[in-house]
Amino acid sequence: MSSKEVALRSTIGGVSVEGRLHTLSVWFILALRLMIGLAFFQSGLEKVLSGEFNAAGYLQNAPAANGSPAAGLFAAMGENALFVDFVNVAVPWGEVLIGLGVIVGLLTRLAAFWGAFMMLLFYLGNWDIAHGYINGDFAYMLVFLSVAAFGAGRILGLDAIVEEYEVGGRPLVERYPWARYLLG
């Protein structure tokens, strides 16, 4: 292994995989973080500024029209006025906040988790398997999961600073190891 490569190894359920990353990979991880963050931020900002976002019609109609296996769940959500009111705020502002968090690299894993969750819902709601099961929503979900897995918030992001912030004379993540699940 050259000095410009980093070895990776992971075992899940008794199955191990290994690989090597070139140090240039860090730039591509940063690019993925910025790309997905900007895409989410822009999408949310457009919804917030227009003030016209309303999920009711989509929830009640689009998944069924697309043949989604979760159409019944989406219809039930769309029939609950309180839930629709929540979604009308949560989707635009969630996209803005997730996008900002990922762009600046703050609470990156938390933001990426919620971004992946939203993309899973969009994947199920926008169900279109005419060209296979992999579409843009699925790919974005994987980008969010990759951003989280690589700890992309530590690459020119605020998570690197927050993790080292001293609490009681010790870095935050040493004092509170659970914080690693939110940062990085």
UniProtKB/TrEMBL annotation:
Topology term for the membrane: Multi-pass membrane protein
UniProtKB keywords: Cell membrane, Membrane, Transmembrane, Transmembrane helix
InterPro entries xrefs: DoxX (IPR032808), DoxX-like_oxidoreductase (IPR051907)
GO CC annotations, alphabetized: plasma membrane
Transmembrane domains' residue ranges: 21-41, 96-126, 138-157
Compartments in which it is found: Cell membrane
Pfam family, one: DoxX
Protein name in UniProt: DoxX family protein
Species of the source: Halorubrum salipaludis
